Structure of XRE family transcriptional regulator:
Amino acid sequence: MVQASPTPRRAQLTGSRIRERRLVMGLKQADLARQVAISPSYLNLIEHNRRRIGGKLLVSIARALAVEPAHLSEGADASLQDALQSSAAALPTSFGPAPETDRIDELAGRFPGWAGLIAAQQRRNAGLEALVEGLRDRLGHDPVLADAMHEVLSTVAAIRSTADILVREPDIDPAWRTRFHRNLHEEAERLSLRATALLGHFEAEEETGPRAASTPIETVEAMFEAADHHFPRIETMGAAAIPAVLGRAAGMDDPATRALAERWLRAYAADAARLPLAVIQPAAEASGHDPAALLHLGQGDVALVLRRLATLPRQTMTGEGAPPFGLAVCDAAGALIFRRRLTAFSIPRFGAGCPLWPLYRALSRPGQPEAALIEMPQGARFRAWAVSQPVAPAGFGAVPVMQAVMLVAPAPPGTAGDAIAAGPGCHLCPRRDCPARR
């Protein structure tokens, strides 16, 4: 068991990740030490987590191991962390000993194959649960299905009533008996037609592909993640480039998905037109990508500055570009409607996040920017900036449509100050004694 330390646990495992990556590549310790210009004994201390590492040396080692520095300093990707944490949370209490959730990062770093298998099984389970939930919702709300079932049940009731009369009345008049037989035949044909139409309704959807396991918002998020949330053609051409972007994206044959993707891309194009890349990028680099120093660029629109920072080209191993940013957007009800994931800072796909995030505090104070230091359960610290603003102009007496936006970035090493002990959302958070837990 790891002893308490002011150094977050994820940072403590940097040396272990370096060693695992070196062994996977088949590099000897002396060879790696020579490449990064340090002694093998010093590298040995680093790999056994006896020396802290950061800055230029971490970048040099990451370049030699052909990985991003964040992979060594932060560990497994947030999606893998989410899946492992969700797998642990989904286990029934009768399963046996509780999983060691505080060692998830160690599992992912030392046994990536097994961790990936568990994550894949969790994603499959989640997909099946979403499919079942979608079908259950479909059974309860599909108007075509409800109408067809009503007609089928009505026809069955008519057939049963006619058959009951024929059985209970043996001395019925022959003319009436013939009429009842004709009714039975007509109702049976109607039942056959209704059942065939109902089957055709489901088969028609199967031909277009299964949609229950992949919602429009998931497909749109995948499109944004594939582009790393930066669309150069829209930056230069504006909304005119949206059809070309949608034409190259997967899953846009579904009308609902395409409409949602076009909506978010138009919002992206509007932001790019109001605050062009040629303005925000050099200013952000000069200020160290500090949102507080860039608020004047938004001319009063704080949310615009936060959204644009989340769309800057991402930082590479050479140090060029913006640092990693995460983004969460919610409506006035607190439901997350858009997100950009960030390693070690989990943002739920559905529902709401942690009630302690400044994202939700901003909803109670519209127009007032919020800033906070957040500490996640694994010990990683993040800086967060949030604001709540109306997204549509409202006339006198009209109810404004509000949205809250939160930008998140890893806190620099050694960042001091009181931090909010938050989590990824109550479903996955291991903080059982949190007063805000649902």
Remarks:
- Confidence is low (pLDDT under 50) at residues 1-10, 206-213.
